[in-house]
Amino acid sequence: MSRTRSAAGSGQGIHRRSVLAATGAVALSGGAGYALRPSDSQAATAGETTAAVAASSRRAPAAPLAPYTRGTTLAGVATPRGGSGYRRLGDGPGWRRVVRSELAAPKSGRAGRRTALAAFVQLTDLHIIDAQHPLRLEYLRSADVHAWRPQEALTVQGAIALVERINALRGAPVTGAPLHFAMTTGDNTDNNAKSELEWFLKVMSGGRITPNTGDPRRYEGVQNSGLPLYWQPDAAVRDRDKQAGFPRLEGFLKAAVREVRSPGLNLPWYSTVGNHDSLPMGCYASHGDSYLTELAVGGRKLMSVPAAEAQRLQTLIKKARDPEGVRWHEFLTAHARSMRPVTPDESRAPFTPAEYLRAHLDPAHRGVGPVGHGYSSANLDAGTQYYSFRISDDVIGISLDSTDPAGHYEGSLGTAQLRWLDRTLRLNKDSWAVVFSHHTSKTMTNLRRDPARPGERRHDGQEVLALLAGHRNVLAWVNGHIHKNVITPHSASGGRSFWEISTASHVDFPQLARIVELTDNKDGTLSLFTTLVESSAPHRTDFADLSQTGLASLYRELSLNAPGARTTLAGDPEDRNTELVLKKG
Known about the structure:
single chain; 8-stranded mixed β-sheet; 7-stranded mixed β-sheet; globular; disordered N terminus
């Protein structure tokens, strides 16, 4: 873990294999219980392995700007104007960088000594939403304003603008090193729907997207239902959101379902699975329930229920009293006569874990690579969704599957995966390790047994923390799920320590992604730099601009004003742009 070399002629050293950004990092293991040998083949057997090698990536700029702030929240942040009612956004001052020394004391002169080990971008909780899907729980809004957001029809436009921002970055802000890859840490989709999965993959790898299902000519959902429970942007209905200051925007829904284009990321990207990618509504283990599938693709949609009934259903969800969706099934059956007609669409069908893997492996969604975006045919054969990959000579990445197939939105790991994680860290003890998952350590509390593996124990976040703390090579655990920026130090006996970096979602304000840089300070310490970025959409909105870019700006502003939205999701200054110092193990 000390094989770094400085690049000649550079003020800050860049690792000699930062050029792995041009080949995208190489897969090490497909979670099949054995280590995989790097190869450019995607055929894997028990004795042979696969590798996912990206076709191409961007090169480092000829004259890296190090450090630089342009395009990051160091330079400026979308800032609310006004103190009450519907608030507009405008340009605001940036967030400063905070040095955190809980795990090691920063030493003077380190900026002139440090060498870049790796740099990457984390996206999380994109929640690409099919806003017209019949199985959505919008009607819970009668009991809880958080159950439906006015911006949900614009998730595709907002995610494309985030891709555009990442593509415009000149490199890593502190070191100027090339960005090796992007990792999306789960809840890529919102409702385990094939339509959402296709849109997500095209957002990330490039393509034309029509964010519409059902009637190809028009939107059919809660926002043209006439129900005052929801913002009716095109109508004169005095709905609850307009009473709070939301505008009337004629043509909004027509624009929201219009075809858009994503350029796709211009660097390799990897994928981690979240509970919304695995379970209907992110919480129900339907196990192929034919009734729910029929409703998903069929011509009926429930849009409103009395508040008392909505409250009872929400309690079942929050308290995990119905993880398999039995009571939800009964609830929908009881309200069948209240459902409204919509246009049936087979693309709304739920996808299985195997279909999720095959979609990632589809050459049509390769982009700049790697093929499978971390997943391989070994994952398909083993029925797993976890893997490891080589980032550079000195750094590996490990992507976990923290979802619980037995239902509920909190997570855990099965024994087989926990043992695989321990073995992978031991086999790569001479490399630094960055671990990725969807759930945080505090939200891995769901210990229900996987129905497919009833004899296997599940392990919570405290057990995962203990395992990671037992390995000197772990630098960071990067995750999402909580929709908030939180950075937590973890330490154990023997000087072992690492940082847990949890990043806010891109569906709730302030809609951020995070750049992470790993550096060796050449003084017995390491530094991890975190820098938040917004999408490329302008901070200021124009209600008359319903172009793709205009809608992306509106997506951010609507998320600020969503009833119940909390600006505290941005986190405190020490959870945003940071330098996180560590002792070398």
